[in-house]
Amino acid sequence: MRNLLKHWTDLLLGWLGVTSDTGGWDRWIAFLLVLLFVVLFDFACRLVIVRGVRRLVARTRAVWDDTLFMTVLVLANMGRILGRQDYTDEAVYQFLLHTKYLADKKTGLWYHGFTFHGNHNFAGAFWGRGNCWVTIAIPLLLEMLPIGQPARRILVNALENQIASLAKYQDGNGMWHTLIDDPTSYVEASATSGFGYGILKAVHMGLVDAAYAENAKKALAPILKCIREDGIVDQVSYGTAMGRETKDFYKQIPLRQMPYGQAMAMLFLMEAGEEA
Length: 276
Prior knowledge:
globular; 2 domains; 2% strand; two-stranded antiparallel sheet; mainly alpha; Glycosyltransferase; 62% helix; 276 residues
């Protein structure tokens, strides 16, 4: 940094047409001018960046069901490991907050997201993989933390309502559609595996009626058919952003070979092994 400032000082002196020895006052003045410019430039950049980030956050204020599995469970586990009650409290709060804004009171299924700009659920889609994050995350959270009865009852009730609806919308071939309540959308393997795992996990923990295990078992055969000899899982939808306008957005997501397809299938197969 020192050499860089000296270089800029020399450039400034050259631009001004000033020549001086190393100890001249003009060199010190030029150095201070360069330093002042650097400080002001840094301040301006920080101001622009901070304002930009704040505007971005303000424009994207929303909750997504993906967050529970991908972020909040990590926070809960960090709190457990580090003994940080504030972390675990925040994790439980986030689960309750997401339940409030994403769990549909009529069907029990979960919307992909909710935005506080207009207070709506974007396209109003019951996206398959997004729902399966919830089916997995609630049992894992309850297994991870000693959650008190008020919050525990709310989460178990939300899980029961969702699984009851999943049983209703399960396709005849045992899988679930990428839009759970839309049979014209394609069946999807990662969501099906996630539901299978989450349902069996909930049954094994005694959170839901044991009869729902049959719905999970029904999904096992078609998932096995999706697994190639080399372990690649077919019929997995590509990474999916928020469908903001129409539900057709989800139908247009291409099928790809994705690592979470394998991961979900592995979880499902391991939990299904507990049934043997």
